[in-house]
Amino acid sequence: MKLQWRKPFGVLNPKTLKDVGDVPVGPYRTRSDSRHNANHFASRYHDARFDRHSKNGAANPSSFFHFFFVSSSSTVASANFDRIFQQLDLPGNGNSECALVINGPGRSSHFDYTLNLLRGGGNTDFNGHQTCITYDAVNAAYLDARKRIHVGSVGEVLLDISMNLARTYGLSYEDIEKGLPLIDTSKTLIREICPPFLANVECVAGKYRRFDGLCTNLEHPTWGATNTPFTRLMGPLYSDGMHSPRISGSGRALPPSRVVSRTMHPDEGFHDHAGTVMIIAWGQFIDHDFTLQGTPLDPFSKNDPEECCGRPAHLKHPYCNEIIIPEDDYFYRLWGVKCIDFVRTFPSVRPGCRLGSKVPFNTLTGVLDANTVKLRSGVGGLLRMNPAFEQYGLKDLLPLKLDYPDEGCTRPNATMYCFEAGEIRVNEQLVLTVMHTLMAREHNRLARGLAEVNPHWDDETLFQEARRINIGIVQHITYNEFLPILLGKDGYWNGYDSSVNPGVIDAFAAAAYRFGHSLLPTAVERWSKAHKFIASKRLSDLIRRPHDLYRAGILDEYVMGLMNQVAQAMDDSITQEVTNHLFKKPGARFGMDLVSFNMQRGREFGLPGYMEFRKFCGLPWTDNFDGLFGAMPNETIYGLEEFLKDLYQEACLGLLSHALLLPSSVTVEEETDFGMNYQTNHRRSPHLNSRKSGRPDWPESSAITPI
């Protein structure tokens, strides 16, 4: 269809053109209100419109743009604007207005040519002083993304649109990170697919917390909610500026994840008598309260898909980012393993369906709200439990996992089941299952006690009140017992700051909080009530295998073990139980590598490197290894230098800056009570502080009465 222009709605005033740029928002401006914004001149022109339907009269997008739809092709094509010039009946006359104005040399598309010509671009090279990205251009990118049937979620559509605009206008890093998110997508076709809870949320203050985390902050309702983007301390460093995993600043590939794992994280650790394995158990329990990346799952087992290794490119899962195993690997070569399956995270949908580079999303609430403790029975405010040992006078276990029994569970046979709780990773390791069981029992104890005192309360009230108290217990233990051991006893605050976003920070989820992996023991011990050692079992035999708990009385022995077994020190060492045997299948002699997973996840998140975080924490930048002395152990520095020399024939600290954020998260110097170094603390503290100061209902807040 030929592009046609409508007659302007009014006379174009040259002064209006001259004054464009008087309403700055940093280097960008958005067309938020036509009555007050200088970009109002753009509303006087009507650009090409687009048909809501496909050529063959396909259904309205709302009928197939659910959160996910079927996909089969992974071809990414350039926008074919000539093919999309179709009529679109949109309300209002603002869609050829400027959605975003970019300062600098003029850049344009077919849609924006005339507008940008008027703005100062004097020739077909669009060399004006500013560029106007119109709403019609955003609509064109949307329709182009919609045509590609590989797109499977709203987040993918928005990322595709952002990539289209970045490619069309040659957007810089700053344009992508600070400019694109300013576009008001509610004035485009994107509004058709924007989830309602991200577009317009009305909050009503209530006594109890919502399970989805919405309205934790009444001024910013989506902050800390489920399925919302991770927050960031710094902008991402994607290799393509939009979503591809990070590479080094020089453009070369980063060290293979497995090579970093086996070289920098040998199983040579020692114990730290300042803490017990209970620190690990509680740390993982609260981690699963507020952090779970959204990734593809196998539709049958609900586990990570095994669709990457050993498959031709056209049969691989589109999110594959597999871990390549070197041929000379000291362990995996024994079993002929050359690859480990790994999939990337889904892109998120930002509040308001804003555009920009990929931001992974958190499927859980970002606040400590004990959402790990639920599965209601519907009677007396109680949780569902399994009275397996009632005849012996022992307490209940968690209920059996009967739906998708293989999800996060390695079953020895079809008659053995794992456990079910409020969080799907309850069976990830046995001591975590123990913590879930203890807190579920505590909820039911509270509900029964409240029912005795308040016999007139119904199931809903009893459940909510017991949950409310249990949340306070989890928060109190975390901030008064757990964190002082890790971070020290100073720097805490009991106030509330509505400007603090309690959402989970990406660097916390993908790097800093993974320090606990260095504390893991090779074997998990059972102790008696008299504090006597009974027995131990290899950690890898308890990962996704919590079946020991079906033996009467053994849960208590594991609890005593958590309180008596000394944890490993927080250092470079990580047990082979998780670097060689993670999630191993029944009868297998090998498993996966947790450290490689950590490295791969940080890179696909686009996390900046170690030096960038030093700078962010107020520590000096250094361009040589001597500058690291005092920040991490000497042996770690020497090891890093030799590692980079062997890999690249040079000991370039720039590679360290880009490659090795994770190893730097488990080094020890300038210690607190449990061996945390300053810069590692600094990466954890902002996140852990925001769990508290960003919540108006925190039980110790000076603004409310404590629970």
Automatic annotation (TrEMBL):
Compositional bias segments (type: Basic residues): 681-693
Keyword terms, alphabetized: Heme, Iron, Metal-binding, Oxidoreductase, Peroxidase, Secreted, Signal
Q: Name one GO cellular component term.
A: extracellular region
Residues that, per the record, bind heme b = 517
**Which InterPro entries does this one have?**
Haem_peroxidase_animal (IPR019791), Haem_peroxidase_sf (IPR010255), Haem_peroxidase_sf_animal (IPR037120)
Q: Which Pfam families match?
A: An_peroxidase
Matches recorded under SUPFAM superfamilies: Heme-dependent peroxidases
- Supply one GO BP term: response to oxidative stress
The residue ranges crossing the membrane are none
Cell compartments where the protein resides: Secreted
| Top-level division of the source organism's lineage | Eukaryota
Ranges for the region named Disordered are 677-707
Recorded GO MF terms: heme binding; metal ion binding; peroxidase activity
Under the heading PANTHER family, the entry gives: CURLY SU (PTHR11475:SF106), OXIDASE/PEROXIDASE (PTHR11475)
Q: What is this protein called?
A: Uncharacterized protein
